[in-house]
Amino acid sequence: MPYKRFYSNGKLLLTAEYLVLDGAKALALPTKFGQDLVVKKISSPKIIWQSFNEKNNIWFESEFDINTLKTTKPDQDIQATKTLQKILKEALELTSKDDIKNILPPKNGLQISTHLTFSKNWGLGTSSTLINNIAKLFKIDAFILLQNSFGGSGYDIACAENSSPILFQLNNEKTIIEPIDFNPSFKDQLYFVHLNKKKNSGVAIKKYRPIDDNIAAVADEISKLTDKFLSAKDIKTFEIAMIQHERIISNVIKEKPIQRVLFSDYFGHTKSLGA
Questions:
Q1: How many CB atoms lie within 10 A of CB 209?
Q2: pLDDT at residue 103 in the model
Q3: CA-based R_g, the chain, Å
Q4: pLDDT tens, position by position, 153-199
Q5: Which of 60, 75, 89, 160 is the most exposed place for a label (fewest CB within 10 A)?
């Protein structure tokens, strides 16, 4: 039997992609899909790690020395292993000595397994749910662990911890999270389309960061549009906010709106979901 199990929700960012990093108010949704992390104690001084996809097939596995976190299994995915090592090392740095003794008892080890309930290429937060679960295991702040490993605004960590829609905002390095009621009467007219073109969030953020010098004013415009998304009483008003939002983001990241690129003949309106 597992002695500990942790679970975190996936995420969808409806508004303020990219600009959430610069103080824009974002509307984000935790998803019913997520990822768990199950921990068992073992007698060997190592960490045996297995990650399972939504079909319960192993997509990654590795083994680490419990004291050094060096890999002891030579056939692992090198990049995934380095990423996991970095997260675990940062987690240990943030953990108190007493907690480390309890989590990693001398002469013992851990068997850890993670289980996704969504496909990795959906972009619902394979990394953020992992970081949040590891933070729970080590009893540390998930937002700090995120900054020390991947970076980002932290809205995805907020979604991992909340069960309702949220407003998320960074204000002078302070994180503001407000659970809200977002249940539009026209929700049956809203659809999410998976394009199978998931972008690397870290790369996208690095590309965005240096673009606009007047970012504070643009972030304020996006915050006002987030309020319009929330207050919309009908699909037409919601679509107008979508169009305005896409135009601003397109200007900021210097890319054509997704409607022009892929859905020019669609009768409705579309917007991208970004980093």
A1: 12
A2: 87
A3: 20
A4: 999 999 999 999 999 999 988 999 999 999 999 999 999 988 877 66
A5: 75
DSSP code at position 3: S
Q: Kindly tell me the number of DSSP H helices and DSSP E strands found in the chain.
A: 9, 7
pTM for this predicted structure: 0.92
Give 237: exposed, middle or buried? Use CB within 10 Å, 0-12, 13-18, 19+.
middle
In sequence order, the β-bridge partners of residue 38 are: 5, 113
Q: Which residue has the tokens 């290429």?
A: 121
**Is a pLDDT exceeding 50 seen at residue 1?**
no
* 103: in domain: yes
CA distance between the termini of the chain: 37
DSSP conformation class of 20: G
DSSP state of 15: S
Give the bridge partners for 8, in sequence order. Answer: 35
Residue where the block lists tokens 């289980």: 115
How far is the C-alpha of 141 from the C-alpha of 139, rounded, in Å?
Answer: 7
Residue 150 is assigned to a structural domain of this protein? yes
Q: How many residues does the chain have?
A: 275
Residue type, 68: T
Tell me how many domains the chain contains. 1
H or E stretch covering 41: strand 26-42
Cβ-based neighbours of 240, under 8 Å, separated by 6 or more: 228
> Interhelix angle for 201-208 vs 235-253, to 10°?
70
* 231: exposed, middle or buried (Cβ count in 10 Å: 0-12, 13-18, 19+): exposed
Domain that holds residue 257: 4-262
* Residue type for position 221: E
Output the CA torsion 182→184→188→192 (10° steps). -50
Mind listing the pLDDT tens digit for each residue in 8-28? 999 999 999 999 999 999 999
> How far, in Å, CA of 97 to CA of 168, rounded?
33
